[in-house]
Specification:
4-stranded antiparallel sheet, 7 helices, 5-stranded mixed sheet, binds benzoic acid, Glutaredoxin, 2 domains, Antioxidant, Horf6, Chain A, domain 2, alpha+beta, single chain
Length: 221
């Protein structure tokens, strides 16, 4: 089955994009990256999504995350549609702040498991689903999300998960439900109480539960 799993090295593919031909690892240049696909240029939900992504591009850049989009359309279509996307944001004179990959032959979409069999183009061929890959500075896949063509994504949530990924890459913690930066985090299950006391000088609190097991350990970083 095509696709890519968490921890896999992301393929160093070559592709045509709105900034010319790229080799993906050179494009990333050891930064964090986010590659997100959309079904089709000049469609409504895709336009709202890329406009939102463009409006948040400073926030991705602040986190050191390089952005790149992908669909099965041509570079020419991407360039024309980018103007619509920026006009939708009332920024008609600004360029789209990230490139778009032209995967007209669906080679990448097939290899990475991005096609949506329920959504077909005028020729009856599946288009790309709304797929998100977050890639770490080691070129390995840190997160993937796959939505069907009919459901637009939440790009604020993508910033939130990047905050979690970047934090948990550095500290032996995990982020609980609906966590946001500044909230308490949870000590990883494989960290002993003795190690936790050293690692987390702000202290570790434990939430009591009927089992008596002490696995709900919180700390404030
Ligand atoms: C859209 O972007 O609106 C869209 C594209 C393909 C299928 C469904 C919706």
């Amino acid at each position: 089955m095509p696709g890519i799993l968490l921890g896999d090295e992301f393929p160093n593919f070559e592709a045509d994009t709105t900034i010319g031909r790229i080799k993906f690892h050179d494009f990333l240049d050891k930064s964090w990256g986010i590659l997100f696909s959309h079904p089709k240029d000049f469609t409504p939900v895709c336009t709202t999504e890329l406009a939102c992504a463009a409006s948040l591009s400073d926030k991705f850049a602040k986190r050191g995350v390089k952005m790149i989009a992908l669909s099965v359309d041509s570079v020419e279509d991407h360039c024309g549609w980018s103007k619509d996307v920026m006009a939708f944001n009332s920024q008609a004179s600004s360029p789209l702040p990230f490139p778009i990959i032209a995967d007209e032959k669906r080679q990448l979409a097939t290899k990475l498991g991005m096609l949506d069999p329920d959504e077909i183009d005028v020729d009856g061929i599946p288009v790309t689903a709304r797929c998100v890959f977050v890639i770490g500075p080691d070129n390995r896949l840190k997160l993937s999300i796959l939505y069907p063509a009919t459901t637009g994504r939440n790009f604020d949530e993508l910033l939130r998960v990047i905050d979690s990924l970047q934090l948990t890459a550095q500290k032996k913690v995990a982020t609980p439900v609906n966590w946001k930066p500044g909230d308490k985090v949870m000590v990883l299950p494989n960290v002993s109480d003795a190690d936790a006391a050293t690692l987390f000088p702000n202290g570790v609190t434990n939430k009591e539960v009927p089992s008596g097991k002490k696995y709900l350990r919180y700390t404030q970083l």
